[in-house]
Amino acid sequence: MSYVHAMVVGNTKKDTLVPIISQFVEEGTTVFTDELNAYNALDSMGYNHKVCDHGQLQFVVDGEVYTNNIEGFWSHFRRMITGCYHDVSDEHLQSYIDEAVYRWNTRKASQSIRERIFHKPCQSLSHHIFPITNSHSCDFCIYCTVNSVFYCF
Asked: pTM for the full model?
């Protein structure tokens, strides 16, 4: 299952995106992107960078490289905006993104677990809550980066 970190950025230039990727993606990780030039430096930064060149109608490479997961997230986000809110202001855009990230990252959790997660100390910072794979018997675990706490349900 894929988990998302998403935020408003000022632009999609290398100098903006690369530090964000470095903050959230561990070196050595395989990163699938589209052909945006801003991602070209990822190989030299210690990432295993794989590219789908959508401009050349290349959507899956070697049967394993694709960007469908993140495209699915943004598709859900757009439907949430047009279906529920109809319009958003720049001032509140990050809050809408946070809600979409929370919903995406907890989409496999039951409704009761989602409600219990929301009432934890990270409730207003849902973009800092990430489900984790657990090695014990709880139903669902999250890690809150704000207060560095694991919560099990």
From this structure: 0.67
